[in-house]
Design a protein that fits this description.
metal-binding, 29% helix, oxidoreductase activity, 4Fe-4S binding protein, two-stranded antiparallel ribbon, Alpha-Beta Plaits, elongated, alpha+beta, 83 residues, iron, Fe-S_Ferredoxin
């Protein structure tokens, strides 16, 4: 299972992760004006939130990033035909 940690000192409260997450893993904590994890079990480790965070306040643990071979092979085949 993915473990998500948000550094509250680094989080600027922009809400980008809340808006970007396809599985609604995050919500805004209105009292702190910071993002918080509310559905960690629903995280599919796409890391779009991590990439969009302007303050790099997130850390994802226990993930395995796999190559998307179905895309890589197709693209490689197309490039070989072009070159």
């Amino acid at each position: 299972m993915v473990k998500i940690e948000i550094d509250e000192n680094a989080c600027v409260g922009c809400g980008s992760c809340v808006d970007d997450c396809p599985n609604d893993v995050y919500e805004m904590d209105e009292t702190k004006n910071k993002s918080k994890v509310v559905k960690e079990d629903d995280c599919m480790a796409c890391l779009s939130c991590h990439e969009i965070c302007p303050s790099e306040a997130m850390e994802h643990k226990n993930i395995h990033v796999a190559k998307r071979l179905y895309i890589d092979r197709r693209v490689s085949g197309i490039l070989k035909k072009i070159i």
